Amino acid sequence: MDSDVTAPPADGPDIRLDRVVKRFGETVAVDGLTVDIERGAFYALLGPSGCGKTTTLRMIGGFEDPTEGTVFLGGRNVTDLPPYKRDVNTVFQSYALFPHLDVQHNVAFGLERRKVGKNDVKKRVAEVLEMTQLTGYEKRKPAQMSGGQQQRVALARALVNRPKALLLDEPLGALDLRLRKQLQIELKRIQKEVGITFVHVTHDQEEAMTMADRIAVMNEGHIEQAGSATELYETPATEFVASFLGDCNLIDGDLRSRDGVVADFRTHDGAHLRVPSERIDPALNGSPVRVGVRPEKLTLLPADVPAPDGANVLRGRIEIASFLGTAIQYVVHTAGGEEFTAIEQNRLGGGVHSLGPGRDVLLAWDPAHSILVAKGGTHAGA
After folding, report:
1. I need a surface site. Which of 99, 165, 221, 297 has the fewest CB within 10 A?
2. Is the separation of the CB atoms in 159 and 124 below 8 Å?
3. Model confidence over 306-334: pLDDT tens digits?
4. Whether pTM exceeds 0.70
């Protein structure tokens, strides 16, 4: 361990990565990552393929060695320890069950290898099968079970060892949408019940927002921003976060003036938009910025109808109106050349579009819903 690396106290974060770097040849997969994950948190590493999230998880689990930096678990430096000497378990997307063993013996496998007493094994297996809603499936083989049931077995096998932390590597990625949504809720319930730290890798924004207490959005080996789902969605720090965590309409321009309450943003085509001053990071002063607004925050009005007083307004023309069941999605080509998406809840019934393609409209929104982000990506840290 480097002399300037200080181990976190035992009552500090459950997992700590200190300036961790991972290189594969000339490729830097993880670049100077420092992360603290609190005990009992449900923490998600979210990002696109190749952003470094799975490599980060594998370094926590001991399946990859950092090129530089230190990994702590429970305040203990485990950087050089193999996986079986770390008090964590990993659940993989592939389940990795033993096909020749039934559910009971798959779940008990780790305990039996550790020579845990038979009565204790039986009791702990029964407890975890009840927790994962697998009671009654003890004698089934993996091939006799659905994908969702097999994933529950993999989860039970990890939890029965009572690890300090559970690592989840895209565990729901192979399941259909309906089952994935069901298991998202189940995983959250189980995590609250057992109270241990879960670290979950996913590229699915909705999955991360549904389950995690804290989300770290990764990009090119860095954490762009970390926070709760609400913080990341409502106040993203960068263009990348704004666009990756939900849909966001963005427009170029410059900050022109500020009166302490709102700032005046002049778009590239001369429109004036207002942004609350508390949403403006001082670090953005003098930097290229973009203003954004979420599709559901927009109100579409016919071009000849006055916009609400004080609203931000852009002019445009509807290109596409798509009925989605619960809502109607509009694609609007703005006067400045941007393509904006607006979502209008289906309150009329029957899939009736209140406005159709070719209609000139106003895109209006409350300035309080404006998002101001750095153009491109900056690495805000964890």
Report:
1. 99
2. no
3. 989 999 999 999 999 998 888 899 999 99
4. yes
